[in-house]
Amino acid sequence: MALGQHRKILQIVGYQNSGKTTVMEQLITQATTEGLRVGTIKHHGHGGIPTIESSKDSARHEKAGASVTAVEGEGTLRMSIHQSNWQLADILAIYESIEMDIILIEGYKNEHYPKVVLLRQAEDQSLLQKVSNIVCVLYWPTYPLDKPLDYPTFSIQEKAQYIEVLMREMRRKS
């Protein structure tokens, strides 16, 4: 069975402090409430090897109910597995052997899985041209939404609406 065919993969992307971890927590909580097993992968995009202290977002994922969590940065996967370099496909291969319904990925903007894009300020607009496979866009009050976007778009304050859309997406068969 090909990767992603028996479990849904969804990425949450945005620039630093855009609310990615909070959206991840919301989705994890909702999915586990519905009886789904969730795994998470976070890209440590700020450089350096992730330390236990820098793995606080993964701890938040676990506290929200994720069955399996990992953070990757500079060739270190914070599952105490080391090799010269980690690609997302390598981490997903490890997760393949663990029973999960959903894998939520925080970061990895250049990968091609379905994505939720968070926009906090005008400069973040360029992200829409840099990423592929956008499922929906969440924007902050600080983001100037001048015209409709080509994707389902929700204010970050419309939690019930975007959670419903994203859960529908995650329940959908691949």
TrEMBL record:
Highest taxon of the lineage: Bacteria
Stored InterPro entries: MGD_biosynthesis_adapter (IPR052539), MobB_dom (IPR004435), P-loop_NTPase (IPR027417)
A Pfam family reported for this protein in Swiss-Prot or TrEMBL: MobB
Residue ranges constituting the Molybdopterin-guanine dinucleotide biosynthesis protein B (MobB) domain according to the UniProt record: 9-137
CDD domains assigned to the protein according to its UniProt record, in alphabetical order: MobB (cd03116)
PANTHER family in UniProt: MOLYBDOPTERIN-GUANINE DINUCLEOTIDE BIOSYNTHESIS ADAPTER PROTEIN, MOLYBDOPTERIN-GUANINE DINUCLEOTIDE BIOSYNTHESIS ADAPTER PROTEIN-RELATED
Protein name according to UniProt: Molybdopterin-guanine dinucleotide biosynthesis protein B
Organism the protein comes from: Lysinibacillus xylanilyticus
